[in-house]
Design brief:
- With 92 residues, this protein is an all-alpha fold.
- The chain is flat and about 50 Å long.
Length: 92
C-alpha cells in the first residue's frame, strides 16, 4: 500500500475508535437520562467537545489511540483527558 493509503487507514482506525468510545459513553449517558429523567447526554457531549477543542488549541500533549488497530481504550483515554479541560485553561 502506498503512503497515502496507510495514512488514510491510520486515520480511519482512529475515527472508528473514537466513534465506538463516543457511542458507548452516549449510550450510558442516555440510559441515565431515561432512568433519572436528566439531560446528561447533552451535557456530556458539550463538555467533551469543548475539552477536545481546548486540548487542540492549547497544544496539550494528550494520548492518541493507536493507529495500527482500532484502539477503543486509547480513545477512552483521550476523552478522559478531554474531560479535564478547565485545568488546561488555568495552567500556564
Amino acid at each position: 500500500m502506498n503512503e497515502h493509503g496507510m495514512k488514510f487507514k491510520d486515520w480511519l482506525y482512529q475515527v472508528a475508535a473514537f466513534l465506538i468510545a463516543w457511542s458507548i459513553l452516549c449510550s450510558v449517558a442516555g440510559l441515565a437520562d431515561d432512568l433519572y429523567d436528566t439531560m446528561i447526554r447533552l451535557d456530556l457531549t458539550a463538555w467533551l467537545c469543548i475539552g477536545m477543542g481546548v486540548m487542540l488549541l492549547k497544544n496539550i500533549k494528550f494520548p492518541y489511540p493507536c493507529v495500527d488497530r482500532i484502539d477503543v481504550l486509547g480513545a477512552f483515554r483521550t476523552l478522559w483527558w478531554a474531560s479535564f479541560w478547565p485545568v488546561y485553561l488555568i495552567r500556564k
